[in-house]
Amino acid sequence: MKKRVIAVLISAILLYQPLSVSAAAAPDGMTDASKTPAAQNGAWDAWCEEWETIKTDWTQVAMSPGSDETEMNFAWYTKEGEEASFVYGQTPDLSDGQSAAVSESPAQTGYKSSKVVIKDLKPGTTYYYQVSGKEICSFTTDADTSSFSFIFVGDPQIGSSNPEKAKTPEDILKPSFAAAQSEAVRNDTFNWNDTLTKAYEKTNRLASFVLSSGDQIQTNAKKVQDTTISEVEYAGYLSPDLMKSVPVATTVGNHDADNANYTYHFNPANSSSLGDNGTVGGDYYYTYGDALFMILNTQDTNVEEHRQFIESTVAANTDCKWKIVTLHQDIYGSAEHSNEPEITNLRYSLVPVFEQNDIDLVLAGHDHAYSRTKMLEGGQFKMEYSDDEFEEQLEKDMDAGENPDTLYEAPGNISEDTQDEGEQKYLKYLHAVMDEEAVMELTENQETAVNSDGIMYLTAGSSSGSKYYDLVPRQQTYIANRWQQDVPTYSVVDITETTLTVNTYRTDTQEPIDTQFMLVKSVDHGQLSALIEEAGSKNPEEYTTESYQTMQQALEGARTVNADPAADTATLTNAYTALKTALDQLEMKHQENLNPPSSSDSPDNGQSQNGGTSGSMSDQTTHTEGINKKPVTSQTTVKTGDAVPIAGVVIVMLTALLCGGGVLVVGESVTKNELAEKGRRQFIIFGITILFAAFLIQLNQVEREGLYETEGKTFEKAKVVEIKKDNTTESGNQIGNQLVSLRLLSGKFRGTVVEAVSSSGYLYGTHCEKGMKVIAEVNEGEDSLYVTVYSYDRTAILCMIVLLFLLTLSLIGGRKGVYSVVALIFTFVCIVFLFLPLIYRGVSPVWAAVLVAILTTVVTMYLLGGISSKSVTAVVGTVLGVGISGILAILFGKWTHISGYNVADIEQLTYVGQTTNIKIGELLYAGILISALGAVMDVAMSIASTINEIHFRNPLLSARELFFSGIRVGKDMMGTMSNTLILAFTGTSINTLVFLYVYNYSTTQIINMYSIGIELIQGIASTMGVILTIPLVSLLSAWHLKRKEIKIFSKIFQRTGRR
Predict the structure, then answer these.
(1) Rounded Cα–Cα distance for residues 870 and 533 (Å)
(2) CB-side exposure of 548: number of CA atoms within 13 Å?
(3) Beta-strand (E) ranges in 59-157?
(4) Contact indicator for 1029, 941 with CB cutoff of 8 Å
(5) Does the pTM exceed 0.90?
(6) How confident is the model at residue 991 (pLDDT cuts 50, 70, 90)?
(7) Which long-range CB contacts under 8 A does 985-989 form with residues at least 24 apart?
(8) Could you tell me where the beta strands, DSSP code E, fall in 401-461?
């Protein structure tokens, strides 16, 4: 989590004037493909080389779903004067090939649009095809379409990351435009390919088709008055290998709609003249299994035509149980476009048509941000407004000023108490389109809708990362969940005869960004029996114990229900839903690699994550940097994680020896009785420490589930022996990657010289020099080693810095300094080997932090003060002070509506919470307790020591006088300690201060940032704990030293004057 500072609020008020809204909004975000995980290990360089061939090839083939599962549609460009041909069959060499009839029509100058429909496809069959002499490709039909999956993606908009977006004819004439467009298309295509590959892997390579919500490309032909400019974008869009084996159903978006190229490149099934905008054709549909898919061209705003199309299509396909509509505009979205009157007007025109025709699911895009609605029914107009109304207010409300930082949610610059008449009407409009009355309550489970009369609306985020939009500042009532982190996303939709399930993921990590949602139709005994049979066939050895036991419980419940012949439809449906959910949530014991299939895996698989290059890395004929032939070795690999508990025990044992032996070694001369007493004390302490060590050993025997794939990956020490290719320019800047030779100095391949890639990044990699020690990331494949430079090897330097600190502490502090070192080691042991294992096992982080606070306080105070009244009072005061800080933090959080789920890394933490027993919502408060511990302990010991010293020098002082002496000393400490805390937070967050200063954030925005609120709560709660520790320790110390004068303290709090 990025640190924010308590001082930010004060600094902002002093340094910044309130933000005046300007006309310039924050720029849209985009994903730099070269920096993504998929681009590593030479993949980006390989793609850049391949792109040079792809970008001029306008003849890419587009495969689309046919009218049903027995057909497949194709379209491609053929050069004028060349013959178009299409041959297909069931043998890899097409020795049984037959020719399909090709229809042709004029397309771009010099090209024809060629189209084919092949029919009578058999289920569960692999078909091979060849287009006009190109490479032979293949696809496989589903064996059973009663259950299938498809991938839903939004707005590839290939080329939109181009900073020189063409909006006028003059723009495309600029000398820099062609290169900028090519680089943008190259970037977006790489990400588009990566999303498709990852999504297909997520479906276990079983997705039947891909469904795109529109805006396949960026450039509007009408604006630039040139229809050819978008062809390089189509070349990129159509280039992924996956699209040669999995059909893609496209939707017309506003960027596609003004250029007939769309009709040349695609061959949709059952095209209609209804919904035709006069350029790219009308609505179309296809069926697959029990589902009817209707794709609307809403660039034609004639809603009556869309009504006619939907009604006639539904009437002609009455046997379809599921009805799904796709359109481009996000009529129920939650980002920049969603509140535009043009969009909401379209919503209220189409929603009645959808509801009258029992549509189950509506898919959309346009907003470049993910959102999912609740189940909705009955949304309708509540006030009159025009399509172009509220433009000024929308722009002002969403405007981020001149801040170029990427935002995920717009600031919301129009306040609810505005006195401006136009803004008041705008806010009334926003409330009206929230459609609160259309939200349907789900009685059983908020993630399941059973036999619902409502509709769910799903808006896809960007699938290529070419452009992202901010979420609106006021989340609409109709939204169940929304997400924007400027990362490409995709959804997987699973359909059976009785269920439709939606799961949505981020492409980079493959983590879910929303909970699973399921629509369920009525279930009978036969359908429940089939699901029971499927569940009964699962092998318990393949799944985690917890997920399998949950499934078993659902299975037994389903069997009980199914055995009852009198069970009604609702009971059967609920049993089916519970079992289906449990099956979907079964977790494999070992996560498989997310590697794309090699061409040898199956005849229709040749795609790769590496920007479209097919085949495995080791099979490539061209050498890819960083890849080495794996040397033969007989050395065994040591699992570094196995030594962690042992290291903890060693540290604890060291602590035990120092705690037990330190007094004897460096202590002063003592009598025989005192020596015996100290010996007994050391023996007791040593015994307790041994028991504690045994407890830690047992506690750390926990099997941690790997949250990312580490098999075959190690980090090893290495030395640079040669710079094969440098990346330093004449100006001294580093651009691109270095290619270096490394000698591995550790691990099973120690002594081997390997080739590695090093990026000169700020966070990863380093600029290598010959002789430099580095850390290498070694990825071991079947026959190869993939090596990259992770970082400079700073292990020895860091160890020396730590050793220097410990020596300084010991030399200056003497015996107390040595004990301070021991206390630091013990604190480290408690946090790493006690706190973390406890919370991993499901113990409350808050209570685990309390335990750590007590243990570290007791040990530290004992080491520094021995067993004395001073130590006892300091320990009690520290525990009370830390407890006060925690209580105040929880209270402040409740008052400010800030919880542990409002931290910056909550998406990653939520994933951790879903896959482990860690209670992530409590981590914030546990962190506050631990961060307050050091300062509170410091003050407690200082006050206790001061009062003890005063009493030693003048034992005649009363308890009242000792108490106020402690208070007076504490008052001097309050200011310096508070200042120390503030400066510590400020020093760690100087970057944030710079950003706030340079980008001129408004005071209101700063005050209401979650991060600022969290840091204020943390800082103030910790400081108040320190302040209140002063009177607590003063009171305890004085009382302990002057027990006989306890009656005096009844009068202390009645007096307000100083002594």
Answers:
(1) 70
(2) 12
(3) 62-65, 72-79, 86-89, 98-99, 103-106, 111-118, 126-131, 137-140, 148-153
(4) no
(5) no
(6) low
(7) 985/3, 985/4, 985/5, 985/6, 985/7, 985/1015, 985/1019, 986/5, 986/6, 986/7, 988/3, 988/5, 989/2, 989/3, 989/4, 989/5, 989/8, 989/1015
(8) 448-450, 456-459
Residue 796 and residue 836 in contact, taking contact as beta carbons nearer than 8 Å: no
CA 258, 261, 264, 268 torsion: positive or negative?
negative
Assign residue 712 a region (left: φ > 0; alpha: ψ between -120 and 50; beta: otherwise): left
Phi and psi at 778, nearest 5°, equal -110, 115
Q: What are the tens digits of pLDDT across the range 734-766?
A: 666 788 899 999 988 888 899 888 876 666 678
Type of residue numbered 595: N
Three-state SS letters, 868-922? CHHHHHHHHHHHHHHHHHHHHHHHHHHHHCCCCCCCCCHHHHHHHHHHCCCCHHH
Q: How far apart are the C-alpha atoms of 1009 and 462, rounded to whole Å? A: 26
Half-sphere exposure at residue 508, Cβ-oriented, CA atoms within 13 angstroms: 17
On the CB side of 583, CA atoms within 13 Å amount to 21
Mean pLDDT over each residue of the chain, to the nearest integer: 81
Say how many C-beta atoms besides its own lie within 10 A of residue 123's C-beta: 12
Residue the block writes with tokens 């006690």: 834
Q: What is the pLDDT of residue 1025?
A: 82
Task: From 723, 768, 727, select the one nearest 741 (Cα to Cα).
Answer: 723
pLDDT tens-digit profile of 116-153? 999 999 999 999 999 998 999 999 999 999 899 999 99
**N-term to C-term CA, the chain:** 48
- Burial of residue 742, with CB atoms counted within 10 A of its CB: 0-12 exposed, 13-18 middle, 19 or more buried: buried
Return the SS3 of 835.
helix
Q: What is the 3-state secondary structure (H, E, C) of 462-521?
A: ECCCCCECCECCCCCCCEEEEECCCCCEEEEEEECCCEEEEEEEECCCCCECCCCEEEEC
Instruction: Identify which of 957, 945, 908, 900 has the alpha carbon closest to the alpha carbon of residue 927.
Output: 900
Strand partners, 755: 741
For the chain, give percent helix, strand, coil, nearest 5: 45, 15, 40
Q: Name the 3-class secondary structure at 611.
A: coil
- Report the 10 Å Cβ neighbour count for 1033: 31
Which residues in 780-798 are b (16+ Cβ under 10 Å) and which e? Answer: beeebbbbbbbbebeeeee
Give the Cα separation of 150 and 206 in Å (integer). 8
Closest CA to 407 of 363, 468, 326: 468
Q: 601-652, pLDDT tens digit by residue?
A: 333 333 333 333 333 333 333 344 555 665 655 444 333 344 444 455 555 5
Q: Which two tokens stand for residue 453?
A: 């009369």
- Which residue matches tokens 């905008």? 277
Residue 829, helix vs strand vs coil? helix
Q: How confident is the model at residue 1049 (pLDDT cuts 50, 70, 90)?
A: very low
Ordered DSSP codes for 300-339? S--HHHHHHHHHHHHHHTTT-SEEEEE-SS-TT--BTTTT
Distance CA 965, CA 830 (A): 35
Distance, CA of 1017 to CA of 893 (rounded, Å):
7
CB 139 within 8 A of CB 205: no
Beta-sheet strand order (sheet of 111-118): 62-65, 72-79, 111-118, 103-106
Confidence (pLDDT) at 506:
95
**Cβ neighbours around 611 below 10 Å, total:** 28
Which of helix, strand or coil describes residue 859? helix
